[in-house]
Give the backbone structure.
Amino acid sequence: MPPSLRVSDLHFAYPDGHQALSGVELTVPKGSRVALLGPNGAGKTTLVLHLNGVLRADSGRVEVAGLSIDERRATLAEVRRRVGIVFQDPDDQLFLPTVAEDVAFGPANMGLRGTQLAARVDEALAAVGMAEHRDRTPLHLSFGQRRRVAVATVLAMRPEILVLDEPSSNLDPAARRELAEILHGLPVTILMVTHDLPYAVELCERSVILDAGRVVADGPTGQLLADPQLLARHRLELPVGFDPLLAERQLAANRAARLGAGG
């Protein structure tokens, strides 16, 4: 089984000459959850825009589920179906009169109609706990609810890999927790771009730190974030008093307790 994502020796410079990516190597196995960390300007967004062909590398290779991104229209369309990107601002993805119409937009453009399309919408809304809001206008939802609908618009395409750009930003504590519970239950590969280091601990067993267009660290999230010198070198900061290794143990104990209780 090929990995969900394989990036090999990826180089990219913008037209002004700024070298944004310099030999990036990254493999994300199917079903894994990886946090992409790094300071502003590290190249995280540039890397994400290569994953579905919005940007094209100067050299190197990007493969999604074994498919190499190239100029062939059919291949690029399939790659874009398999890579679902959820933007930081949900309003960038919600533009139709109702929640159900927004979620149906992608599959409808893919050719689904009738009962197949309705089933795809029902499936995606159920996955994010928004089925009861299907006929509401997205603008009347809370910010957290809109973010969940934005996730549903991507899930409706049944992607191989879900890419989340700062998923916890601007969420209140309850909405942040609810989204984490939803993401834990999704049967997809996750690549999460975030500055929220506790959220990375909560959701991703592995983290990759990108800085100045290079991968500078790659390993278990708790272990990386427990290295204060590493964090300082790459302008990453934990909340005061937050212990990533202790948090990992507590999260594991909580999950085990829920499983033991049948929940």
The two ends are 31 Å apart (CA to CA).
